[in-house]
Amino acid sequence: MAEIHFDATKSKGVTQSTEGHEIYYQVYDVSGLDDGQDFQVEYETNVDFNPQQEQLTFKQGTETIELKGHIFYLDNVT
User: Residue 23 in contact with residue 49, Cβ under 8 Å?
Assistant: First the structure.
């Protein structure tokens, strides 16, 4: 099980999973006017990592998503 950290303060970035996979990502603030701060992360990778491309939505207060045996973290949410 790999852990992957995304930085909410960057609109684009590159991160590495705990298993060494290089992952490219973009962070979008998709907050509504009255439902708090939501973030959407789109990532892709060309290495042996499944899923190679995905879109994750971190709802208000959510900083962790478990998907297909991996844990995704959204860091530096203000």
Answer: yes
Nearest alpha carbon to residue 6 among 48, 51, 58: 58
DSSP helix, strand, coil percent of the chain (3-state; round to 5): 0, 50, 50
Specify the pairing of strand 39-44 against strand 53-58: antiparallel
What predicted TM-score, i.e. pTM, was given to this entire model? 0.88
User: Minimal CA–CA distance to 1: which of 49, 36, 39, 45?
Assistant: 49
pLDDT tens, residue by residue, 18-74: 999 999 999 999 887 666 789 999 999 988 888 899 999 999 888 999 999 999 999
Cα separation of 48 and 57, whole Å?
Answer: 23
